[in-house]
Amino acid sequence: MTDAADLRRRTAELLAAHPPATTDRLDFLRARFDAGLAWVHYPEGLGGLGAPRSLQAVVDADLEAEGAPDNDPRRIGIGLGMAAPTILAYGTQEQKRQYLRPLWTGEEVWCQLFSEPGAGSDLAALGTRAVREGDAWVVNGQKVWTSSAHVARWAILIARTDPDVPKHRGITYFICDMTDPGVEVRPLRQVTGEAEFNEVFITDVRIPDSRRLGEIGDGWKVAQTTLNNERVAIGGMRLPREGGMIGPVAKTWRERPELRTHDLHQRLLKLWGEAEAARLTAERLRQQLVAGQPGPEGAGMKLAFARLNQEISGLEVELRGEEGLLYDDWTMRRPELVDFVGRDAGYRYLRSKGNSIEGGTTEVLLNIVAERVLGLPSEPRTDKDVAWKDLAR
Fold first, then answer.
1. pLDDT digit string (tens) for 65-83?
2. Cα 70 to chain center, whole Å?
C-alpha cells in the first residue's frame, strides 16, 4: 500500500535522477509520468501508483519546493479534466497507453466536440452522423463552442450512429484526429474581441473503430462521465483565499478608498462571503472524489461559479466607475486559455457572461440539481420514446 512516506521517497528519487535545474522540461514531465507521480491515483503504468487521490498533494508540494516544472494544467485542462478520466473509465488498455502519457505531459492538446448549432442545451438531440464502413466510421456534421480546437491534436467526439432509436440511445463516443483533412476549424469571435471558441466542420472524416470509447450506442452514458468531470473541473477548481474573481475586487477596495460607498461595501461583503463558502465547498467536493467518480454535485458547484463570477465582475465595474467602462484591447486573437485575472475589469465582466453557458447551461444544471440531488419530480419529456429521426427539427 503506497503511503505518504513512500511517495516522498519516490519523489526524491525522481528529483535526484532528473534535477529540474538541468533537465529538459518535457524530459522531466515524461520521467514523472513514468515514475507514477503524474496522478498517483491512476493505475501503475498509466502515470499513477493506485494510491489514494488525496496523496497527490504530497507529491505536488515536494516537487514545487524543488522548482520542478508542472504540465501547464490550464492550457491542457480539457485533456486533464475531461478526456483523461473518460479514457481511463472506458478506454481499452491500448488506448490508455497511447493517449494518457502525451495528454498529461502536454505534448498533445485535446478539445471537446459535443455541442452543435441545433443541440446545445439539448445535447442528446445532436445530429452529427457516424456511419459504419468496415473497420471505420465516416463522420459528417458540425460542432460549435469548441475551446482549443485551433491548437488541439485530438478531440473527444459524440455522434449519432443509429437514428432509428430515441435520441439518448443512438449515440456513440469517439476519439477524433483533429489533423484529418476533413476537419475544418473556424474561429468564433466573442464579445471580448477574442476567438477563444471555434466552430468545427467535419466532412467525411474516417475514424477507425479502434478509436471508439465504450460500446456502440452507449455514447450518452460515456459522455456523462465527461460532463460530470467537466463541471467539477470548472466549478471545483482549487483556489487560495481571495483566489479567482473576488481577488481583483478586494485588492481595488483596499487600495482605492476614494471609490468606496456604503452600498458597494455591503455588496462586496456579501459576495466575499459567498465566494469563500463556494471555495470551501469545492474543497469538500474534491475530497469526496477520493471515494469515487464525480456525481451531480458538480452541477451545483458550476452553478455557483457562474453566478458568482457574473455578480462579482459586475460589482467590480461599478466600483471602478468611469474606469470600469474602459477596455484594454479589442485585438482579434485566438488564445490557448482563458485568463480572467490577467486582463482588466471590462474583460472579466464581458467574459463572465459565457460562464452560464459553457460546461452546461444554467437551466440544464438547475434541472440536474433538482432531479438528481434534491430528488424532485422530473419535467415531462414528450420525446423520451420517440426515434431521433422522427423528432421535429
1. 999 999 999 899 999 999 9
2. 18
Catalytic residue, from 194, 196, 199, 230: name it.
Answer: 230
pTM for the structure as a whole = 0.90
Long-range contacts (CB closer than 8 Å, 24 or more residues apart) made by 39-48: 39/84, 39/104, 40/2, 40/7, 41/290, 42/88, 42/100, 45/97, 46/88, 46/96, 46/97, 46/100, 47/100, 47/101, 47/104
Asked if residue 241 has pLDDT above 70, the reply is: yes
User: Which residues have CB under 8 Å from 345's CB, separation 6+?
Assistant: 248, 313, 316, 317, 320, 323, 324
Looking at residues 185-211, what average pLDDT do you find?
A: 96
Give the single-character DSSP code of 377: P
Contact 267, 330 (CB under 8 A): no
Task: Lowest mean pLDDT of 15-19, 34-38, 368-372, name the range.
Answer: 368-372
Q: Are 53 and 289 in contact (CB under 8 A)?
A: yes
Amino acid at 369: V
Q: Is 323 a catalytic residue?
A: no
Reported as a single tens digit per residue, the pLDDT across 50-62 is: 998 889 999 999 9
> In terms of C-beta density within 10 A (0-12 exposed, 13-18 middle, 19 or more buried), how is residue 319 classed?
buried
Strands (E) across 262-316 are located at: none
